[in-house]
Amino acid sequence: MIAVIDCAGKLPRLPRHSQLTRWFWQGLDDGVLQTTRCADCGRLSFPPRPDCPDCLSQRTEWQILSVAGTLYTRTRIHVVPEAFIDAAPLDVGIIDLDVGLRLLCWLVEGAQTAPLDSQVELVALRYANGTVIGARPLAHEDA
Ligand SMILES: [Zn+2]
Prior knowledge:
Layout: E1 3-6, H1 21-29, E2 34-38, E3 44-45, E4 60-64, E5 68-77, E6 90-97, E7 102-107, E8 119-127, E9 130-137
Parallel strand pairs: 1-8, 7-9
Antiparallel strand pairs: 2-3, 2-4, 5-6, 5-8, 6-7, 8-9
The structure holds zinc ion.
The site of zinc ion has 8 residues, from loops.
């Protein structure tokens, strides 16, 4: 499961949802991080895709992912697209998940200044109009 954090306000722009990725975004709203896995060779893909980039199989299945990973790199974006001006500066990072996937996401709850290579976990940032992926330091405890 992925922790869902309720955030104030609305996202200025949402990621595009396709027929394939709608399942992914719905899962994220419900606290499940998942992507597609090749049913023939086992390769995971992110973002989800209808075929396998390694063996070209079109037999894919959904797999729930562990949220643990490492902060590969991060940056603070001061010059942002117009839609994000009210949210600037934006802190984003590239996360290497322990399952072998690399993805870009927002950094929250101290991950904005965390050392590179430190342990992080993905979280779902749920706004009034949609949910996106974020990462926070793994040491964070809700209890
Ligand atoms: Zn494959």
